[in-house]
Structures are given as C-alpha cells and as structure tokens.
Amino acid sequence: MMLDRKIRSFLNSFYRIPYLVPYWDEEELEAFLSPPRDAVEALESELTRRLSASRVMAVSSGQCAIFLALKSMGIGPGDEVVIPSLVCRSALAPILRLSATPVFCDIAGDLNATAETIEPALTEKTRAILVPHTGGKPARMAEIVEMAARFRIFVIDDAAQAFGGDHGGRFLGNWGDAGILSFSAGKLLMSTAGGVLILSNPNLPAPPPLPAEPFAVILGRALRAMLRFRLRKHTFPFFLAFDRMRRPVQQLERPLCRMSVQDAAMAMVQLRKHHEIQARRRGNAETLIRLLSDVEGLTLPDPPGHTFTKFIVHVGSPGPCREKSPQVLALHRFLESRGIEPEFTHWPLHLRPDLAQFLRSPLPVTDRLWKGLISLPVQPWLGPGDMEVTADAVRGYFAT
Fold first, then answer.
1. Which DSSP string corresponds to 280-343?
2. Which of 69, 132, 148, 399 is least enclosed, having the fewest CB within 10 Å?
3. Other C-beta atoms lying within 10 Å of the C-beta of residue 276
4. Is the CA virtual torsion 115, 120, 123, 125 positive or negative?
5. What proportions of the chain, in percent to the nearest 5, are helix, strand and coil?
6. What is the Cα–Cα distance from 33 to 291, expressed in whole angstroms?
7. What's residue 9's pLDDT?
8. Edge-to-edge strand order for the sheet containing 373-376?
C-alpha cells in the first residue's frame, strides 16, 4: 500500500500542469468515429481558401510533405539541402531518403535561420533550403526567398509549428516554392497525425496519387494518442523512456500516404477551433511574459507574430557546451518537483555523432544558445491561474 501511494505520488507530481494535452473533446471523437467520405477533399479546399494557396495536398505526415516537396523539385543524389541544426530530427529523414545531403546552418537569436546564417552553408551543389519557424516564431522569409532567388535555389517554408502565423502579410507555409503544415502531436492544431503540402511554384509538378493508410495503422495511432496524451498522467514515464532512445534518423521514416479521412475530419474540427486555441495559447504566453519579464537571467520569447506553439525561454549565460547547462537541468527538476511539466528543446543535430558529417562550418549561435533552452507549458487547456503557478515556480527557482 505504501509503495502504491509512492508510485501514485510520483505520477501525480508530473501532471499538475502538463506540457501537452490535445485540445480535443466530443467533436473530435465523433469526427474520428464517423468521418465524412469527402473529409480529405474538404480539408484541402478549406486550407486553400484560408491560406490563399494555389495547390494543397493533405498527406499522412509533415515528413511525407517534405519528401514530396523535395521530390517535386527533383532533389536526389549529389544534391545538398540546407537545414538548421536546431530542428526536429525527423525533418532530416526525407532528405536522406532521397539520397541527398543535408547541410547544417546556424540560427539567429530568435532561434530561426536567416539569410545571413544560411548563405555560408551554400555551395554549387545546394538545390534547396528548408526553413522552419522554431516554436511558432516567424522566420524572416522575405529576405531568405530573395537570397535564394539570387542563387536559383528552392525554398521550402516549413510551417509545421506555426499554423496561421504570417510574415509580411502572407501566411506561413505560403512562402517560397513549397510549404508544409503538420497536424501531428505537439503542433498548434492536432489530429492523430497528418501533414499538408503546399505547392506555390507553378512550375513544380504535382505529386502522384498516394495510397490510403491501412485502417489498422490509423486505429493503432489513435489509441497511442489517447494513451499518451489524454491518459498522460499514467503513461508519461513509459513514453518518456521510449522518446529518449536515440534511434537512427533512417528509422524515423514515415509511410508516404494520403491523409486518412479520420485525421482530416479531426483537422476540420480543429480548424473551427483555431482562433480559440490560438487566443488561449497567446493569452497564456502573454501572462507568463508579464509575470516573468523582470527575472534576471531569463530570456523570454518575442511576442510579435508568434503562434506560441512552444514557449521557449533561455536560462543563464550563453556559452558553448555539448550538454544542457546545469542551470536549465536544475530548473527542469525544480519545476517537475512542483508538478509543472517543462520540455527540453531539440538537441542540435550536428552534435549527434552519426550526423556530424553534415556540418561544414561552425554554428556559433546554435552552440551558444541551445544548452540553455527550455519550453514552458502554455497549452490551451491551461489558464491564468496555471500561468501564475508556473511563474511563481520559475521565480522561486531563480530566488534560490
């Protein structure tokens, strides 16, 4: 009995303020169980209208969308694709799948690649640039597209973390030659999986028709999503251990399939809730910024244009390191001990021994900043009271 109480106490300590819980209710469940037959076409039509896009294709994942974008550009063996090192490693899999060569570039202080950080990575073999918007902060796409045009290089606008964001009056995902969106776990809008390919360059050929996902795969993924997020209180430690296994990037390859009608129907429900989800995230982020703006040693995200898919802060003095700084590790433990679940940001890919070969030049800003990055919870199920508890805990850590 005492052991049982200790286990329950351990589990409960993670989830007073959880980092990520999908903003789902009965509408998403009904959409999954009884999806319209034309859900995929309806989603494509709605995104075309909302984003003022030319060609939209709903696929099984954001990774699948990246692969199709690169394929339509004719990327293959001998070609180089520039990508920031501070990015989700699954974004690398499509490049390797095409036998192309990824080349890592540096970032600026807002954690995004810029024209200035990309240009040193360019060579005569560079064919494309993949530009993510880290955490939902828009990258300076106009400058990147202008620079790429001078070198006759394709640009993929990776808006997986920035749905609905814009730069210069144009929706993210709609810049450059192609763009991608994602509805997978951890994104602003979520179904059980799914991605979107946007082809803005009229000279790029449309991808061939894709097969449907087997229903067993869709059902298994939905059950994992429910276990992982809706029942997170009990399953988190097991999934945490699985996530921290460093599998080779090639093992992260996803099937190339059409988006399922189940995921498309859920995505349509999420689209109807988009403004509510965005407003709640932004409200939570603004509350944290107001309550933490005077904390010395803590750098907060810059709000303009930010979707706050992630609320990434920097802790301590920047400096080179191959591990997370002791300060940020201590803050992580401190918050967890108070029932607040933070999240570490991506490990820079160039620091992985199996990927170091793709580093051509130093990445001083990435090396200086990444070790102090940590993300605080602002997901839409949370509210002002949760933000006050989180801010009090962060202030309490810095006061010790």
1. HHHHHHHHHHHHHTT-TTEEPPP-TT---SSEEEEES-----SS--HHHHHHHHHHHHTTB--E
2. 399
3. 11
4. negative
5. 45, 15, 40
6. 42
7. 47
8. 298-299, 311-315, 373-376, 343-344
Q: Quick one: which of 79, 85, 81, 264 has its CA closest to 181?
A: 264
168, 104, 118, 180: which is closest to 140 by C-alpha? 168
Find the radius of gyration of the CA atoms of the chain.
Answer: 21
Domains in the chain (CATH in brackets) are 24-230+247-271 (3.40.640.10), 273-399 (3.90.1150.10)
| DSSP code of residue 355 | G
If DSSP codes are grouped into helix, strand and coil, which group holds residue 360? coil
pTM of the model: 0.90
List CB contacts of 332: < 8 A, sequence separation 6 or more. 342, 344, 374
Amino acid letter, residue 360: R
Tokens encoding 269: 């429900």
- Whether 263 and 220 have beta carbons less than 8 Å apart is answered as no
Query: What would the pLDDT profile of 212-267 be if each residue is shown by its tens digit?
Result: 988 888 888 888 777 766 555 555 555 444 444 555 655 456 689 999 999 999 99
CA distances from 103 to 68, 69, 83, 198, 350 (A): 19, 17, 6, 23, 9
Cβ burial, residue 26 (10 Å; 0-12/13-18/19+): exposed
Count CB atoms within 10 A of the CB of residue 245: 7
Q: Which amino acid is at 101?
A: T
127-185: per-residue pLDDT in tens?
999 999 999 999 999 999 999 999 999 999 999 999 999 999 999 999 999 999 999 98
